[in-house]
Design brief:
The protein is built from 8 helices and 29 strands. It has 483 residues and is mostly beta strands. The chain starts with a helix and ends in a 24-residue tail after the last strand.
Length: 483
C-alpha cells in the first residue's frame, strides 16, 4: 500500500510536469516576445517593435524536487516507451540490477526537502501600440502552482524507513499547497523619453477565477514518532488543512467548476539606455517588476480544518486503506477528525479559505553586445506573501541570444531553487517559439528530478510599417515591404 502510494504520487507529479511550468525567462527577454512578456513584466510589451500582435497560445511547464528521481529518465525516453512503460521501485530491488525502463529512487542526506511545479498558459491575447508612448493589451491565461519547502529531511525515504520505532524526532513548521486559476487581464504601459534613454511604467489588472485549491500546514514544532504497523503518533501537533472538492466529488468524471474569485495585479518598470552609435538597438535595458499581487477566496465546494490537540494523536494507515480514490477525500478527512477528536465534524472551522497568488519580484538586465546579439540576466524571487500560498522556487539565469525579426536563438544557463544548474536551448522561427531551460531532461537519460519545456504560437505584421525596429526616436512613417 505504502509503495503504491509513493509511486502514484511521484508519477502524478512527473506526468503533470509534462504540462506544467516555471518562468521561460530566456525567451521572454526577446524584444519580439511582445504580449507574451507580460508574464514576466507588464511594462515589457512596450519594448516590442511591432505595432500590434496576437498570441494564439503560449505554454510552459516546470517541475523540480529534491526528494526523488527517476533513473534513466528523460522526456524523450518517456515518449519512446509511452505505450509499454515499465517502472520499478528501487527499495524493492534490494541492490539487484533492474530490467525496467525506469527506476524510482530517492535522495539521501540532511537537506530540507522541497517540491514545486508550475503551469503558465497564455491564451488568446492581443497587444496594440496606440502611439510611441501608449501601449495596451488584453490577455487570458490559465495557471497552476504547487509548492512545498522546508520539509524535515527525516521524511526522506532512505532516512525514514530505517529510522527506529519509538524514537521521536522534531517536525518543524512547513506548508504544502496547490492552486489552479484562470485569469483575464488588461495591460497598459506608458513610455517616456529621457535625455539618455527611455523609461516605461506598466501594469496589469486581472480578474481571477479560482478552480481548485488545497493546503496542508504544520503550524508549530511537534514531536513525531514512528510506531510498528505503519502507525505514527504526534505530540500536541497544530495542523491546518483545507481543500476544494468539485473535482474529487465528481471523480472519475472530473467536472471542474469555479469555486472562488479574486483580483490580481502586476506592476513593472523598464529603463532602456540611449541609442548606441555602432548600430545596436540599445546599450542595455533594466526591467523590474512585482508579479501576481492578489488572492482568491474559495467559498464553494470548500472546507477548512484545524487539528489542535493537547494529547498525542495516533494514526494507523490500516484504518485509511479504504480511502484510495480522489472521491474519498471528504470521507478521509472526516475519519481523520474522528480519530483526533472523536467527532467527524469537530475539525471543520470554515466553509471558505483564501489563497494568495505566488507573488514574485522579477529583475532582468539585458545587454546589447553587437547588432542582433544580446546577453540577458534574469532573477525571480518568490516573496511568500500571505498565510496560504504555493511555495514556488527561485530562478536565476544568464542567456546569450541572437535576435532577428524572423528568427532567434537562446542558450539559457539557469540556477533554479538554489539547487541545481541546467543548460537549455530555444529557437524562434517566424511565429513559432519552442525550447527548454533544461535540455538534459529532454534528451539525456539520467537521474531525472526536474524538467522544463515551453512553446508559443503568435502573429504580428509581415510589413515593415507594422514594425518600428530600427526607426529613430522621432518616428519613421515610411512603409517598406520586405522579405
Amino acid at each position: 500500500m505504502k509503495k503504491r502510494l509513493i509511486l502514484q504520487i511521484i508519477l502524478a507529479a512527473l506526468c503533470n510536469s509534462l504540462s506544467f511550468a516555471q518562468y521561460q525567462a530566456s525567451w521572454l527577454s526577446d524584444n519580439y516576445a511582445g504580449i507574451n512578456s507580460v508574464k514576466f513584466n507588464p511594462a515589457s510589451p512596450a519594448s516590442s517593435p511591432a505595432k500590434w500582435e496576437i498570441n494564439f497560445i503560449g505554454f510552459e511547464q516546470y517541475f523540480n524536487n529534491n526528494y526523488g528521481y527517476l533513473r534513466n529518465g528523460s522526456l524523450w525516453n518517456f515518449f519512446k516507451e509511452r505505450n509499454d512503460l515499465t517502472l520499478e521501485f528501487e527499495p524493492s530491488l534490494d541492490g539487484a540490477p533492474s530490467t525496467a525502463d525506469f527506476v524510482l529512487d530517492f535522495y539521501d542526506g540532511e537537506k530540507l526537502r522541497f517540491a514545486n511545479a508550475q503551469t503558465n498558459i497564455l491564451g488568446p491575447s492581443i497587444s496594440i501600440k496606440l502611439s510611441e508612448r501608449h501601449q495596451v493589451g488584453l490577455f487570458t491565461g490559465f495557471n497552476t502552482a504547487f509548492g512545498s519547502k522546508d520539509v524535515a529531511a527525516k521524511f526522506s525515504y532512505w532516512i525514514y524507513e530505517p529510522y527506529p520505532f519509538f524514537e521521536p524526532f522534531d517536525v518543524t513548521p512547513f506548508m504544502g499547497s496547490v492552486l489552479a486559476w484562470s485569469e483575464v487581464g488588461l495591460n497598459y504601459s506608458n513610455k517616456r523619453e529621457l535625455a539618455n534613454g527611455s523609461l516605461t511604467i506598466g501594469g496589469s489588472i486581472k480578474a481571477l477565477q479560482g478552480w481548485e485549491a488545497a493546503y496542508f500546514e504544520v503550524e508549530d514544532n511537534f514531536a513525531f514518532t514512528k510506531l510498528p504497523g505503519d502507525t505514527i503518533t504526534g505530540q500536541s501537533p497544530n495542523i491546518s488543512l483545507g481543500h476544494t472538492s468539485s473535482l474529487s466529488n465528481t471523480f472519475p468524471d472530473l467536472s471542474p467548476s469555479i469555486n472562488g474569485v479574486g483580483v490580481g495585479a502586476d506592476i513593472g518598470v523598464v529603463y532602456t539606455s540611449g541609442d548606441s552609435d555602432d548600430g545596436v538597438m540599445y546599450k542595455y535595458k533594466i526591467a523590474a517588476s512585482v508579479m501576481n499581487i492578489g488572492s482568491i477566496k474559495f467559498d464553494k465546494n470548500t472546507a477548512a480544518h484545524r487539528l489542535s490537540a493537547v494529547d498525542n494523536i495516533t494514526i494507523a494507515s490500516e484504518d485509511y486503506k479504504a480511502y484510495n480514490e480522489a472521491g474519498h477525500l471528504d470521507d478521509a478527512v472526516r475519519k481523520f477528525s474522528f480519530d483526533v477528536f472523536g467527532d467527524s465534524t469537530a475539525s471543520k472551522i470554515a466553509d471558505n479559505f483564501t489563497v494568495t497568488l505566488p507573488t514574485t519580484f522579477n529583475l532582468a538586465v539585458d545587454f546589447n553586445i553587437l547588432p542582433h546579439l544580446y546577453v540577458n540576466t534574469a532573477f525571480v524571487q518568490p516573496l511568500g506573501i500571505g498565510k496560504i500560498v504555493p511555495e514556488i522556487g527561485s530562478h536565476f539565469s544568464i542567456t546569450p541570444r541572437f535576435e532577428h525579426r524572423w528568427y532567434g536563438a537562446y542558450l539559457p544557463i539557469s540556477y533554479n531553487d538554489w539547487n541545481e544548474i541546467n543548460v537549455g536551448f530555444a529557437g524562434r522561427i517566424g511565429y513559432l517559439i519552442l525550447g527548454t531551460e533544461n535540455l538534459g531532461s529532454v534528451f539525456r537519460a539520467s537521474n531525472m528530478n526536474s524538467t522544463e519545456f515551453f512553446l508559443a504560437l503568435k502573429f504580428n505584421p509581415f510589413w515593415k510599417g507594422g514594425n518600428s525596429l530600427g526607426s529613430s526616436r522621432r518616428g519613421d512613417n515610411v512603409k517598406c515591404y520586405y522579405f
